[in-house]
């Protein structure tokens, strides 16, 4: 029996075991398999391991998407999570090339995936509070929001959770150094039913104004010279 002789349900089941690239390659072989690739039921779960993957055409975004994960585990994360004023020209150029990649993708999710239930972001150093705010507004069914090592996330995201996270059950803000204890307490007070975790976030050294850091650096150099 040829694969194309299988019914739609069997083909969808087979496709579900393949990664995004394999699905796309198989879809190129005939119209029937292309139709299976384009079936929204196949795309309820999406996992990405690099911002580069977000620019490929080997997946579909739509109302069927329920679970989304963008986890960038790489030495490059350290480059992007370094404060802009400390970066050398190479680091600045590297980060500039993909600065809006994740944010633009998430805004697309806001417009096309209103039934999203869970979102996990790890190492996404360019994602901002405004982006998470839009997601909470446009995805009212969101139950799980897990943010790890997202350095531009601040208490503004926590405030948005208290205002728009109507369905939220789980909130993780681990290693987000610009989250404060006051912001966490506000969530606990306003949303007592939310399972909140903030590993190391409020205990890490937050970003401060570059001017202050420059002053500290100059003072340190003077001490070394002395």
CATH-derived topology of the largest domain: Leucine-rich repeat, LRR (right-handed beta-alpha superhelix)
Number of helices: 10
Parts with pLDDT < 50 across at least 5 consecutive residues: 209-216
CATH level 1 class label of the largest domain: Alpha Beta
What gyration radius follows from the Cα positions, in whole Å? 21 Å
Which sheet architecture does the biggest sheet show?
A: 6 strands, parallel
Helix content: 40-55%
The number of domains: 2
Organism: Brachypodius melanocephalos (black-headed bulbul)
Keywords: Ubl conjugation pathway
Domain F-box: 9-46
Pfam families: F-box-like
Q: Can you walk through the features of this model?
A:
It is a single chain. The protein is globular. Strands 1-2-3-4-5-6 form a six-stranded parallel β-sheet, covered by helices on one side. By secondary structure, the chain is an alpha/beta fold. Helix content is 42%, strand content 12%. It has two domains: 1-42, Up-down Bundle (Monooxygenase); 44-221, Alpha-Beta Horseshoe (Leucine-rich repeat, LRR (right-handed beta-alpha superhelix)). It has helices at residues 8-15, 20-27, 31-37, 76-80, 89-96, 101-112, 129-138, 155-164, 181-190, 210-225; strands at 45-48, 67-71, 118-122, 144-148, 170-174, 195-197. It contains ten helices and six strands. This is FXL22 protein. It holds the Pfam family F-box-like. Residues 9-46 form the F-box domain.
How do you describe this structure in short?
It holds the Pfam family F-box-like. This protein folds into two domains: 42 residues, Monooxygenase (Up-down Bundle); 178 residues, Leucine-rich repeat, LRR (right-handed beta-alpha superhelix). It is built from ten helices and six strands; from the N terminus they run αααββαααβαβαβαβα.
